[in-house]
Design a protein that fits this description.
- The structure is a homodimer.
- By secondary structure, chain A is an alpha/beta fold.
- Chain A has 2 domains: 170 residues, 3-Layer(aba) Sandwich (Rossmann fold), CATH 3.40.50; 136 residues, 2-Layer Sandwich (Hypothetical Protein Tm841, Chain: A,domain 3).
- Helix content of chain A is 32%, strand content 22%.
- The first copy, chain A, is built from 8 helices and 14 strands.
- A 6-stranded mixed β-sheet of chain A has the order 1-2-4-3-5-6, sandwiched between helices.
- In chain A, helix 2 crosses helix 3.
- The N and C termini of chain A lie far apart (40 Å).
- The relative contact order of chain A is 0.15.
- Chains A and B meet through helix 1, helix 6, helix 7 and strand 14 of A and helix 1, helix 6, helix 7, strand 11 and strand 14 of B.
Chain lengths: 329, 329
């Protein structure tokens, strides 16, 4: 394993310190190290809190700021944050309107966010994201996994919270956006967890993991590498099939890199996916291409399609100012 | 080699098509495929044009837009664009105030941009960037290589051009910013050029290339992996030594990923570099952390320090709206 680190025990704390220092105009790392919080809270706004295992940056800490999250709780690499992290984050950023947790569907995360919600003062509701259509259940998951679509839920809810939606309405909107989001990923290499010191899985020189999860969990099958168009055809086909009657909405197409795949390949996949979706009558109204929901250094990408309506489009377009996503201000 | 592609012959054109389609609100790929141009030109503004071999994305095409470049000419992967590309880009975006080329110091680029300038109608001046202090000469270079500092030159000049500086003043400002920029990179793995199909160089499981260029060119030496703090100490020390009497200015610290290194490690390196520079009395006034000047899928990073004054700080802070860099609007 070759990584820029001093010790596997301190990689997270040193990285968080650097992150907080580079973005001190926007966010603060709580002295406890338990959460990253937005510097300027908006009184009366519902607090949005997410988190999960580290290694998916910029998700979630990179999305703390105006128009997105109020706090993010980073666990160790690919390890759920503990309930006290979420409890203390609520205490720090809930200004009285309640808190909404945005939680990717993994057993550890769901359990610990549940406990955090019980321990927290004030009203807490939760949105569980499960946009990964590749598999029904997975290594760490009952039901579908929460992956790149989580970014879209965080962005839309962030804008809606800034505009004054209450806790119950935000919970309903989050469930709606998650329900309209479908993702599917493919890995060309494994990631390497620093504490493990070796790749999470072995994969042949000509193979890919089709339907991989963002921790390197198995997908639908191990497959031989194929041309990008073939890969995109199968992924987009699976997404369209899963959408069923919901197809036809103007949509956000989000091609997400897992960390080790360069921009040139992501735009090539975008080009292919867009053509395929458009051939199926889907209007690509908005686009996002980049490495936003990563899996450490894994080479690979995922394709996410989210059906939008006028309301969610306007929330997507609303100004956002976070370390990882910024527009309109 | 495992990459998302259909054919090595079409990877660039397909990727550019995807890029232009994802960012059609900002940029257009000329039908010839020879350059990416800004949709909305500002009459009377000096045209800023850059380019170079592809594989360094988002540099340069990702920096076309308001407050940065008017056009970028993409060569094949790690291959200079041809003079006709620059000539036609000038014809498309020079609205009468002349054009400034921003060229990274590689022999092929310098030669072809020179010829492009001769062939172009209207006034053309050039800024050659050579911020890489790691080596004196290199494989493709007489003198220092132009690397990540180029982004800073493009951003500062972009803002200054929007504010009405004339061609001669922009040329002088570009030379000044380049002269205040110092970069140094280290690679943990090689990149793989699609047309070659195999890594550009071999590197051992415990080795790093210290002082690497952004095409995988050799640096100062092959070295054993060391803790991040040791690597940062030597890089920052080399930068400080090179600065000499210029040290003490408020500075921009830019930690740049080469494509295969995750955000967690980049922020850890930032944390280390910032501490070291501050110990040497350097004030870090601005920060940028991310994979902006890449080398395909190479794992590694570079550290860039740019001394700034009130004028260049205000140009850095000025609004920018491009696919790859955006703030203030």
């Amino acid at each position: 394993m070759k990584k820029f680190l001093n010790s596997v025990d301190t990689i997270l704390s040193e990285s968080l310190a650097g992150f907080a220092s580079a973005h001190s105009d926007l966010v603060t790392l709580d002295p406890s190290g338990k959460f990253i919080r937005r510097n300027e809270l908006k009184p009366g706004k519902v607090a949005l809190i997410s988190g999960g295992g580290s290694g998916h940056e910029p998700l979630h800490g990179g999305f703390v700021g105006f128009g997105m999250l109020d706090a993010a709780c980073p666990g160790q690499v690919f390890t759920s944050p503990t309930p006290d992290q979420m409890m203390e984050a609520v205490a720090a950023v809930d200004s009285g309107a309640g808190a909404l947790f945005i939680v990717k569907n993994y057993e550890g995360d769901v359990m610990n966010f549940d406990m955090g919600a019980e321990m927290a003062e004030g009203d807490v509701l939760q949105v569980i994201t499960n946009d990964d259509i590749a598999v029904k259940d997975s290594t760490y998951t009952t039901g579908r996994r929460g992956v790149a679509g989580t970014l879209v839920v965080e962005k839309v809810l962030g804008a809606a919270a800034e505009q004054g939606l209450d806790l119950a309405a935000l919970k309903a909107l989050g469930d709606e956006v998650n329900g309209n989001a479908r993702s599917f990923g493919v890995a060309l290499t494994s990631c390497t967890v620093p504490a493990a010191g070796k790749p999470t899985f072995d994969i042949g020189e000509q193979d890919m993991e089709f339907g991989v999860g963002i921790h390197g969990e198995p997908g639908r099958r191990r497959d031989k590498m194929r041309p990008a168009d073939d890969i995109a055809e199968e992924i987009c086909g699976a997404i369209i099939e899963d959408m069923g009657a919901a197809s036809g909405k103007p949509s956000l197409l989000f091609v997400n890199g897992f960390g080790g795949t360069p921009s040139m390949e992501l735009y090539l996949m975008y080009n292919s996916a867009r053509r395929i979706f458009e051939q199926h009558g889907i209007t690509i109204a908005r686009s996002l291409v980049g490495s936003y929901v990563t899996s450490l250094d894994m080479a690979g990408c995922s394709i996410t399609l989210v059906g939008l309506d006028d309301k969610t489009l306007s929330y997507w377009d609303a100004p956002v100012h976070t370390p990882g996503l910024r527009w309109g201000m």
